[in-house]
Amino acid sequence: MAKQTINIGSSANDGNGTTIRAGGDLINDNFNEIYSYLGDGSNLNGSLFTIVDESSTESSINVGERLAITGGTNLTTTTSGDSINVTLNTTITGLTSVQTETLTNASGNLLVASATNITEFRGNGSSIEGQIKLNCHANTHGQTIKPQPHSAGVTNTMLLPDGASSTLVSLVATQTLTNKTIGVGQLTGNTRAYTGDGSTVAFTVTDGVTVQNTLVFLNGVFQRPTTDYAISGTTLTFGSAPIAADVITIKEL
Questions:
Q1: Measured between alpha carbons, how far is 132 from 143 in angstroms, rounded to an integer?
Q2: Exposure of 250 by Cβ count < 10 A (0-12 exposed, 13-18 middle, 19+ buried)?
Q3: What is the pLDDT of residue 161?
Q4: Are 33 and 39 in contact (CB under 8 A)?
Q5: Burial class (CB in 10 A: 0-12, 13-18, 19+), 200
Q6: What is the tens place of the pLDDT at every residue in 243-253?
Q7: Cα(25)–Cα(33) distance, rounded to whole angstroms?
Q8: Which of 196, 161, 197 is nearest to 179 (CA)?
Q9: Nearest to residue 29, comparing CAs of 63, 13, 37, 10?
């Protein structure tokens, strides 16, 4: 209903205005519309509207009150006309944790830039080291990179290989090194010393050595691999027993 206005005439008591009864009726109609719009028809509601957050907590905004939109850390709010804009700052500061399982970048690599250019993956403070797991393309299995345990007390830097694409050498896998130069100063081996007794032909060596990487000397005289001795597992066996007091030197390279 549009607002109804009482005709007050052209001058006081000119007899052209709305009658008292009709004027009262217009007043009642106007107030009835107001009370119906801002209340239940009989009583006004002091609350203009109710706001609710993600936790379902409600708050009423009453007549004369203001609704404040605050951005907080890393958020900026602006008002323009009847619009409120909430934007994330270009640079985010003071962020100590991200409660999410997945960080993605739909248009490229996920970039991490820190003032020290170091990104830490922290341990749990008791028994588990910080780790990085690199998954296969199907994310069904992966390989984990982890540091030495706390008990080792190790703080160092590991440089990845330069040059073309390459594969790291493992302590476990059987691998062949090619195109490498090893100086004499870097060659170190395990040396074993025994004494002949005239009957013993078998002597212990390190598991994995072969006649190709083992030098054997009797009293300083070089012994021929395969011809004078053989190796199987952790046992080096002479073709004939060194005589008593023979000095046996086994050099494992």
A1: 8
A2: buried
A3: 85
A4: no
A5: middle
A6: 999 999 999 98
A7: 12
A8: 161
A9: 37
- Cα-based torsion angle of the residue sequence 142, 148, 149, 154 in order, rounded to the nearest 10 degrees: -150
Q: Give, in order, the Cα–Cα distances in Å from 99 to each of 96, 119, 138.
A: 10, 18, 25
- Distance from C-alpha of 158 to C-alpha of 81, rounded to nearest angstrom: 58
Q: In sequence order, which residues have a C-beta less than 8 Å from that of residue 199 and are 6 or more positions away?
A: 241
- How much of the chain exceeds pLDDT 70, in percent? 98
Question: What tokens appear for 139 in the block?
Answer: 């994310």
Report yes or no: 102 and 139 within 8 Å, Cβ to Cβ: no
Q: In angstroms, rounded to a whole number, what is the distance separating the alpha carbons of residues 24 and 134?
A: 82
- Pairing type for strands 75-80 and 58-62 reads unpaired
Encoded amino acid at 19, one letter = T
pTM beyond cutoff 0.70? no
pLDDT tens per residue, range 178-193: 788 877 666 678 999 9
71/14: higher pLDDT = 14
CA distance 243 to 199: 7
SS3 per-residue string spanning the chain = CCCCCCCCCCCCCCCCCCCHHHHHHHHHHHHHHHHHHHECCCCECCEEEEEECCCCCEEEEECCCCCCCCCCCCEEEEEECCEEEEEECCCCCCCCCCCCCCCCCCCCCCCCCCCCCCCCCCCCCCCCCCCEEEECCCCCCEEEECCCCHHHCCCCCCCCCCCCCCCCCCCCCCCCCCCCCCCHHHCCCEEEEEECCCCCCEEECCCCCCHHHEEEEECCEECCECCCEEEECCEEEECCCCCCCCEEEEEEC
